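Model it.
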Amino acid sequence: MSTPDEAPQPQQPGSEPPQPGNVPPAGYQPPQGYQPPPGYQPPPGYEPPQQPGMGQPSPGQQYSQPAPGQPTYGPPATHNPAPPYGLGYSAPPRNVFGLDFNNIAQRFRDTRGVPQTLVISYWLWVAAAVLGILTSFVNIFVYRDIFGGLAVGAGIANLVFALVLAAVYIFVAIRLKEGARWSRLVLSILGGFAVLSLLFLLITFNLGLLGSLAAVVGAVMMWLPDSQKHFV
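Modeled.
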């Protein structure tokens, strides 16, 4: 017969881990401050419960401020789709194509809220478009005087191409000052072609080198640190 001193005492919190072979029930959590003894191996199939503040929240669950010393988890960083703050007019979202002619005149001329380096880049792209048209028009008469009337057709075709390219330059430049990242990538590619064109035009002393030079400088200006802030 056992005495009261020999009767089994209830298990104190933090005294022992679950015995091997006994998988804790669902929802079991070890007592606060419990440390398993050295060499302890959890039984097969046992998975420790998820600690508060760890892992990704379930759908609809709000993120809470983690305790000091705990890793911080939150929703992944995404690019802000809204137009840049301080822009002087209503603009399409950054991550869309943005072909809208309702207020195209204001979108063309208004540069409020745009960093100064990006304003310079924008007007350089517009200048490159205008210079491309002017030089193509002048070249029609230059080609006629040098090569005769047969070269007029080639000059007119070159002028049509310059008009199309100018429209692309101006539209993408508008989206550039409206914070669209895709427009900066497109203009970077066009700036690369302008570098090749500039090297060729320097050799031939063609008037088109002015437009190519403006495009190259504009491509550089849109990657300066002050311009980068406009695309965050």
